[in-house]
TrEMBL record:
This is MFS transporter. Belongs to the major facilitator superfamily. Proton-dependent oligopeptide transporter (POT/PTR) (TC 2.A.17) family. It comes from Psychroserpens ponticola. The chain crosses the membrane at residues 28-45, 51-74, 81-98, 104-123, 143-162, 168-188, 208-230, 250-275, 282-302, 308-329, 341-363, 375-395. Its main location: membrane. InterPro entries: MFS_trans_sf (IPR036259), MFS_Transporters (IPR050171), POT_fam (IPR000109), PTR2_symporter_CS (IPR018456). The keyword Transcription does not apply.
Length: 405
């Protein structure tokens, strides 16, 4: 680990982070209300139909992000795509106030389309802020990731509360207003991103290898997380019932997000002043992930109160793993790609995650019947990937030292 010198975050970093926080608040707040709205006393949809619509909704976002990235990179520009997407997404939230199935379909279509324009282009433009200070990329994207977590937590809490207390339409209106406000930091930012003049210093083979490895290992992390979460959520319910820690039951559902907050802040501070490679961070992330799943595996099928602290420690380690993995994928893409096509590459990065999630999801019935099976497979997969990353990191270090000789 080496010390960073003469590099610092700019105010544009925080403009973009605030915009993303507000957008995620709008999006996740809307999501928490939409199924309740569809199955409520007015529309009276069957829950299976509502869940099917939501499945199509979340799946379509991957396609819309590719479309939005293509238009942002090749035709209208990333900044205009962010603003355009934000406006469309806001109109989608407002359209959901039309109490009919037509209003639902049009509203969700507009939210999907708007998110497709907004998401890959804001991630791309954020990364381009660091083209000439790549050692701050990890810290910068962790700020961005922290904003996402804060936004989703606040959105689900506040919009969910107002929607349930004062009517779903109030929740949708708040969601749309938040989305419109999220555009303001982008409008006032004065970033000058000269990606056309930027030339990547790394050879093409190294760039392709590192980007491909990042796609695979990060996709695997979220796939593993999906199959292990069945056991984690079971334990979460058990401990909310038996724990004497005076934690309200509804807060047990947000304990992961709560732990992410201090971990993120520590990582931001450390990575702002000290630099280590992205693949070293991925290695650390998978090692902590393996340890976390190992601790969860030690908790018996029917836990007692004395296992509560063990569970919280496991979640803490899993949070450390997440912070060393989730933001780093975008750092790697920014560092090794051609910035002219960064939004396109970012939109494609969502595909491996969804693909591995779909593949692992085919076996969900087995994991529901035997939740510890997901933890066992998670431990094995995390250990194998950790070993592979250890080998790769030392191989990279050896090549770097040879080049300097």
């Amino acid at each position: 680990m080496e010390k960073n010198r003469n590099q610092k975050h700019t105010k544009e970093t925080f403009y973009y982070a605030i915009s993303r926080m507000l957008e995620r608040g709008s999006y996740y707040g809307l999501r928490i209300l939409i199924i309740l709205h569809m199955t409520g006393i007015v529309l009276k949809m069957e829950r299976t139909e509502a869940l099917s619509i939501m499945g199509w909704f979340t799946g379509s976002i991957v396609v819309s992000q590719i479309l939005g990235a293509l238009l942002g990179d090749l035709i209208i520009g990333n900044k205009k795509a962010i603003i355009f997407g934000g406006i469309i997404q806001a109109f989608g939230a407002f359209t959901l106030c039309i109490t009919s199935t037509t209003g639902i379909y049009i509203g969700l279509f507009l939210v999907v389309l708007g998110s497709g324009f907004y998401t890959p282009n804001i991630i791309s433009n954020f990364g381009k802020l660091y083209l000439n200070k790549t050692k701050l990329l990890d810290s910068g994207f962790t700020i961005f990731y922290l904003a996402i977590n804060l936004g989703s937590f606040l959105g689900m809490s506040l919009i969910g509360y107002f929607g349930e207390e004062y009517g779903y339409n109030i929740g949708f209106i708040i969601s749309g207003i938040l989305m419109l406000i999220s555009i303001i930091p982008i409008l006032i930012s004065k970033d000058k991103i000269e990606d056309k003049k930027f030339k990547n210093e790394f050879p093409m083979g190294k760039r392709i290898l590192n980007i491909s490895l990042a796609f695979i290992v990060v996709g695997l992390f979220w796939g593993i997380y999906q199959i292990s979460y069945i056991r984690i959520s079971d334990l979460q319910f058990e401990f909310s019932e038996i724990s004497s820690l005076n934690i309200p039951k509804h807060l047990w559902q947000t304990i992961n997000s709560t732990l992410i907050l201090p971990i993120s802040i520590i990582a931001i501070i450390v990575w702002t002043f000290f630099y280590s490679t992205q693949f070293f961070k991925l290695m650390i992330g998978f090692i902590f992930g393996a340890i976390s799943y190992g601790i969860i595996y030690l908790i018996p099928g029917v836990p007692t109160e004395k296992h509560t602290i063990l569970y919280i420690i496991a979640l803490l380690f899993l949070g450390i793993a997440e912070i060393h993995i989730a933001p780093i994928i975008h750092s790697i893409l920014t560092k090794y790609s051609n910035p002219k096509y960064l939004a396109i590459l970012i939109s494609l990065a969502f595909i491996p995650t969804r693909l591995f999630g779909f593949i692992f999801g085919l076996f969900n019935d087995r994991f529901y019947d035997n939740p510890t099976l997901g933890i066992k497979l998670g431990i094995i997969a995390m250990v194998i990937i950790s070993v592979g990353l250890i080998v790769y990191v030392f191989w990279e270090k050896k090549n770097y030292l040879q080049q300097r000789v």
